[in-house]
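Suppose you are handed a protein chain with no further information: no name, no annotation, nothing but its sequence. What can you learn? This example shows the usual starting point.
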Amino acid sequence: MKITLAAVLVLLAVCSSRAVRLVANKENITKDKLAQERIVGGQVAEKGFAKYQISLQGMYGGHMCGGAIIDNEWVLTACHCVDGYNPEFLRVITGTNVYFQPGATYEVDEFWCHCNYDNPTYHNDIAILHLKTPIVYDDLTQPIALPISPLKDGDEVILTGWGDNVLWGGTPDELHKLYTKFVTYEDCYEIYGGAPMLDVGHICTFTRVGEGSCHGDSGGPLVSNGRLVGLVNWGMPCATGVPDAHCNVYFYLDWIRKVMSQNCRECHCSASNYPFGRNKNGANKY
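A reasonable first move is to predict its three-dimensional structure. Written in structure tokens, the prediction is:
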């Protein structure tokens, strides 16, 4: 399957805080790489299935994006989920499969986006949130380990989130899970016809038509072999038969560790700096 560059560059702006995602003309998609036929995405996750999963919300509730607990004070998500927000207005919901029934709620002290977020467009879409108070671990709330090696072709990847079950559908009450497969950068790049928004800072996943991420899954975790390997970034909404692209957590390990050390002078070029959006060292907000 291959997509022309012109098709990939057709963008759809979403009029909400949930995922800005990519749209292309399906007539430009060939059928030589990926299988067809499927039902729309995943199944309801059992209680405690993804103890590292968080729902990122505003101060008055409402699911915006997903994310993952990596430490009792730190959460990873996508930068496009938080760019331009005042961290004081953000809330991290933990310990639940129903986003409006929090096990616990935590306020955000500060967040950092990658200094080159959206520069080039759709690149470096990762953010790390620091919480005002430490997360209390329990039977439903635990951190997820960071990766120690790159994914291999065909590795199983588990996606969880509260994203739409169908394009422009509503947010489901319960957390959903989807078992999908890693697609190599080379194959994904070929499928997308060399689209400039895809680089080695992304991983791609795919199973079959009708299964994939959608609006509201943004920032959410992808896990393989018990480790956090990706954060939902962008795709062709939704589950149209081409891979979804996610932040490659392994690629950003050094940046993550530098921010968490709180001794990284250059990391502060993309702190929240509300209400001005990205500064001269970053990209303009959506």
